[in-house]
Design brief:
The complex is a heterodimer of chains A (328) and B (333).
Chain A lengths: L3 E14 L2 E14 L3 E5 L6 H8 L7 E10 L2 E2 L5 H7 L4 E4 L3 H4 L6 H12 L4 H14 L5 H4 L9 H13 L5 E5 L7 H18 L2 E6 L2 H7 L2 E6 L2 E7 H6 L4 H9 L37 H5 L5 E4 L2 E3 L14
Parallel strand pairs in A: 3-8, 3-9, 6-7, 7-8
Antiparallel strand pairs in A: 1-2, 1-4, 4-5, 9-10, 10-12, 11-12
Helix pairs in contact in A: 5-7, 7-8
Chain B lengths: L3 E15 L8 E16 L3 E5 L6 H8 L7 E6 L2 E2 H7 L2 H10 E4 L13 H12 L7 H11 L16 H13 L5 E5 L7 H19 L1 E6 L2 H7 L2 E6 L2 E7 H6 L4 H8 L40 H5 L5 E2 L5 E2 L2 H8 L1
The chains are: A alpha/beta (328), B alpha/beta (333).
Chain lengths: 328, 333
């Protein structure tokens, strides 16, 4: 077993809004192994993005990390000063956001935005910085890098903008990369390009990657292990092939059965109801109001993650009594 | 096969583009949004229209509903010329045509008036069309809500009190209020969460069986198109490039663009490894579409003829139509 690059234990990030306290992330624990691609899966409001920005300590007000431990390369991130965090962000841990249109600054050229990242973390001469930027743009497949780096984000197409965002995230060769739905806004043929690019770069640079997505197809395609989130809690953690073949949490089963597939036509299963409101989430297991297998205990007590076989963790009281279906 | 509901013949829509001058407005180009599209939609079928952003899917829908006026070409609704009805028909004729065709939009957050209750939203078509006597409104609204899986008490609420999936149900109820035969669903699930998408897809199929609806289902999401459509047309830069029964199209795609599009979709099963065809480059601007076959700059099998001559849709058997020099050749060589 390889070692952990990141460990998250009992992370709670809450947002103190006027309407009440939103329990966006409420006791999330998982680890990222060195060199792996981990999938962080869930629907909107499941807490996947908040988990990522909590790890980078970028939670905006009125949000706050209430509790938990985040250990990155053996160091406690929550104990770091803001100064120290600045070195880590973009240097050792980088993030690519969903929407390249809003994550790139429209009034600076690509050169100055990438240059900023490099200058923050490294001491290089002006020429070396330029050369490095050109190299990065070349690496992400942008032709004529010396010309294009002088342009502004609006002069790039959607796919090209996301490539610039990838280049910016990789500028200082991070050890860990968060990709927060990097292809959601792109057309399918462009999505295929960007996913292929990220897969290649991850291998050639030897970094670890956390892919945040709601697309079960992308998860199957590029991850080796998956963490399934629902309403701010972890439901299930398993190696990708195990998760798809024999899910042990009813939510995972339902999610797999509800996704239409391009290679076959099947009756789509329905998950009844809606995603719960996280100001007053359901008691007990948060999935119980939508769960076809829920028992009395599920309504009363919140289940904890339990290791049911090596590397396969499930938070469900009933997993022993259920025979759940995977795909295929 | 049942009878044709809609026939579209050589539909063309171009949008002029003007320079941003202060005093003089000069036309600097033309967006070829829809170029020479022809297809039929049969009664009780779901016709899928797929393509990437900017390929002309939504413009096609707008043209069918006469929300945009075609530059040329014909749209026949049960033999009636839609464009003619809207330009020179009487008000009764126009309303009666409108009643038969309805639209469900992509974003249920912006397509519902936030200041109207669900009751007002669903009963507004009654007011406009007057096809239901006022004392029957309540019953009909509740019936419609029941059809889309909502409850009676929801009628008094406002759109902001509902989740995305429920709002899309309200939009569907509103579309059903005029008892239409034909519904255009323009990306009805793309702004919804995964677990909610299946609900709406199943609801659409269920309603089709219950009321006998015909759908034009527009989407860029090929998996959902396969799920719900009977026949599928693939568009690229304003042109229909391939057209076939759903299973035929997905099992035996002939056009290189369709092949790439299908292979680009990740399959939610880690055991399936796909030979992904990654297309180089991006969709060119529809202002100056490439000469010859519009797909030729991104295509792997460019012949010289592809750069010169625009391929026509050719039937390669079983109603499978392809517009590709290569595809045509390989099938008959």
């Amino acid at each position: 077993m390889s070692e952990n690059i990141l460990e998250v234990e009992g992370l709670r990030t809450h947002f103190y809004t006027e309407a009440g306290v939103v329990l966006a992330v409420d006791g999330v624990s998982f680890n990222v192994l060195k060199g792996e691609t981990l999938g962080l899966v869930g629907e909107s409001g499941s807490g996947k993005s908040v988990t990522a920005i909590s790890i980078l300590r970028l939670v905006p007000r009125p949000g706050r990390i209430v509790e938990g431990k985040i250990t990155f390369q053996g160091e406690d991130l929550l104990a770091k000063t803001e100064e120290e965090m600045r070195d880590i962000r973009g240097g050792k841990i980088a993030i690519i956001f969903q929407d390249p249109i809003s994550s790139l600054n429209p009034v600076y050229t690509v050169e100055s935005q990438l240059g900023d990242v490099i200058n923050t973390h490294q001491r290089l001469s002006k020429e070396d910085v330029r050369e490095k930027i050109a190299e990065l743009l070349q690496m992400v497949g942008i032709p004529e890098p010396y010309v294009r780096m002088r342009e502004y984000p609006h002069q790039f197409s959607g796919g090209m903008k996301q490539r610039v965002a990838v280049a910016r995230a990789l500028a200082c060769e991070p050890d860990l990369l968060f990709a927060d739905e990097p292809t959601t806004n792109l057309d399918v043929t462009i999505q295929a390009q960007v996913l292929g690019l990220m897969k290649d770069l991850k291998t050639s640079l030897g970094m670890s990657m956390v892919m945040i997505t709601h697309d079960m197809g992308i998860v199957a395609d590029i991850t080796s292990r998956v963490v399934v989130l629902y309403a701010g809690r972890v439901c299930e953690i398993a190696p990708t092939s195990v998760l798809y073949e024999r899910p042990r949490h009813p939510y995972t089963e339902a999610l797999l059965a509800a996704v239409p597939r391009i290679d076959q036509r099947k009756k789509l299963a329905i998950i009844p109801g809606n995603i719960p409101n996280l100001i007053s989430p359901p008691s007990g297991c948060r999935f119980h109001p939508r769960c076809p297998y829920a028992k009395e205990t599920c309504k009363e007590k919140m289940p904890e993650l339990e290791e049911i076989e090596p590397g396969h963790l499930v938070a469900c009281y009933e997993w022993r009594n259920l025979s759940l279906n995977g795909v295929g | 096969m049942s009878s044709k509901l809609i026939e579209v013949r050589n539909l063309v829509k171009h949008f002029p583009v003007y320079s941003r001058g202060i005093l003089v407005k000069k036309q600097i180009g033309v967006v070829h949004a829809v170029d020479d599209a022809s297809f039929d939609i049969y009664k009780n079928e779901t016709f899928g229209l797929v393509g990437e952003s900017g390929c002309g899917k939504t413009t096609t829908a707008m043209l069918l509903l006469n929300l945009e006026v075609p530059d040329s070409g014909e749209i026949l609704y049960q033999g009636e010329d839609v464009t003619k009805v809207f330009t020179s028909g009487t008000k009764e004729q126009r309303l009666s045509l409108r009643r038969r065709m309805q639209l469900v939009f992509q974003n249920p957050y912006s397509s519902l008036d936030p200041r109207m209750t669900v009751y007002d939203i669903v009963s507004e078509p009654f007011r406009n069309h007057g096809h239901i006597p006022k004392n029957k409104w309540d019953d009909r609204v509740y019936e419609l809500l029941e059809m889309v899986g909502l409850e009676e008490y929801h009628a008094e609420r406002y759109p902001h009190e509902f989740s995305g999936g429920q709002r899309q149900r309200i939009c569907i109820a509103r579309a059903l209020a005029v008892e239409p035969e034909f519904i255009i669903a323009d990306e009805p699930i793309s702004s919804l969460d995964v677990s909610i998408r299946a609900q709406i897809l199943n609801l659409l199929s269920e309603l089709q069986q219950r009321v006998g609806l015909t759908y034009l289902y527009i989407s860029h999401d090929l998996s959902s198109v396969r799920q719900i459509s009977h026949r599928v047309a693939v568009m690229y830069l304003g042109k229909i490039v391939e057209f076939a029964d759903t299973d035929e199209l997905f099992n035996r795609p002939v056009h290189p663009y369709t092949q790439a599009l299908i292979s680009a979709i990740p399959i939610p099963d880690p055991r399936k490894k796909i030979n992904r065809i990654v297309l180089p480059g991006e969709v060119p601007s529809p202002i100056n579409p490439p000469r010859g076959c519009r797909f030729n700059p991104r295509c792997t099998c460019t012949e010289s003829s592809c750069r010169i001559e625009e391929p026509k849709l050719v039937d390669i058997g079983k109603g499978h139509l392809v517009a590709c020099h290569e595809g045509y050749l390989s099938k008959f060589a």
